[in-house]
Amino acid sequence: MRPFLDSLYRLSGALAALGMVGTLLMVSAGIFSRPLGIYLRGTDDYAGYCMAACGFLALAYTFKHGEHIRVTLLLERAPARLRRVLEWGSLAVASGVVALLAWYSIRLAFQSHEFEEISQGVDATPLWIPQISMAVGTAVLLIALIDDLVMTTLGRPPARLTVPGQEAVRFE
User: Fold this and answer.
1) For 26-74, what is each residue's pLDDT tens digit?
2) Domains in the chain: how many in total?
3) Nearest in space to 158 (alpha carbons), one of 168, 143, 171, 167
4) Alpha carbon distance 64, 54 (integer Å)
5) 172 located within any domain
6) Owning domain of residue 110
7) How far is CA 110 from CA 105, 129, 143, in A?
8) Secondary structure E strands in the chain
């Protein structure tokens, strides 16, 4: 199961990187085409969609690398047993909040498809298409949080992704 989950988190990170490249391409296309008198419809909108995709799809990958901002002032000073309880509680609350976010993100994409909503820009993109990245990103983040919650419940340290040549990051 661990190789599958790690592959899922890495795939999400790779898709986020594609979103970043897409943002670069759309912004560059807009910048370089304007002096030539060429108007490329929707480049600003598509750059925004790619940027949102990048942000949401990177959530789980970033979390599993231990790169999310964490306030550890209290945790560092707490005894080991209390620290584990606080860590478990924060993962449980975060899982609940992200479960709601994932649910409503998925629901939003389905409703946008059902009602045939389109963007207000000149490109008239069906909104469910860019909303998929938000739904997928939050769902994968939920899986990552539940993964850590289960590991913490079992008394094991949460599994972190590693980059070849770097040591694994451990939070204990």
Assistant:
1) 999 999 998 898 888 889 999 999 999 999 999 999 999 888 777 677 7
2) 1
3) 171
4) 16
5) no
6) 2-153
7) 9, 10, 20
8) none
